Amino acid sequence: MLRPEPGPCPTKIKRCLQKKRKLKGKTTMSDDFELRREDEMEFFALPYLFEPEYTEEEIRQMDESAAATHTSQASGRQRSNETWWCTCGKCQPLPTEEESQCCHDWTISIPPLESIIESAGETLFTSRCITQQNGFPPLLSNSVLEVFFSLPKINWRRRPSQYRLVAYRIVLEWMLKGERLGRRNRRVLPSCVVSAIRLSYPSPSGQYVGFREAEEAFGLL
After folding, report:
1. How far apart are CA 192 and CA 194, in angstroms?
2. How many domains is the chain built from?
3. Which of 14, 88, 169, 201 could cross-link 217 (Cys pair, CB 3.0–4.6 Å)?
4. Which tens digit of pLDDT belongs to each residue from 30-72?
């Protein structure tokens, strides 16, 4: 990020004046002491001057985390195993706070949500879910997911699981719209998206491993 160019430093201006006085033989010890004191004050007044700057991705992650924390604190309620925080109306209760977020909480899903309104040609409520966008259902079709079944890292004997793994990754790429997360960056998919994928390809036992399942999928493609 670019920093604004600083204006003229008052200390530097005064230093120039002091030098001029010195040339004229008018500099005093009090002048030198005052100048050094102001130099020290200027340095210690900028404690973060040499701190590393955050990237845009890091800032966005911090904003998302702060927003989720603020929402939970403002309500005084936990998100896990609840759906009060859902805005789109399609989320299902999940066991952890990290997984309990709506598509409207996810900044990356904002462009698809905006395109819903643009493509519909009519006024829609802002609570419209990303899973209701026209481009979402085809992503979960067998014909689309099976294109990726040649990947050697997936155990293809677990049929529902393999469909979910591929679906998590395809939906993430669709939501990113070509944006790259970067190495070691991870994203928890919104509850409504996870619920739609599980509804399409449910586990025979009814048991899921939560975010670990989606995280495994992110390293496959």
Report:
1. 6
2. 2
3. 169
4. 555 555 555 555 544 444 444 455 566 656 656 665 665 555 5
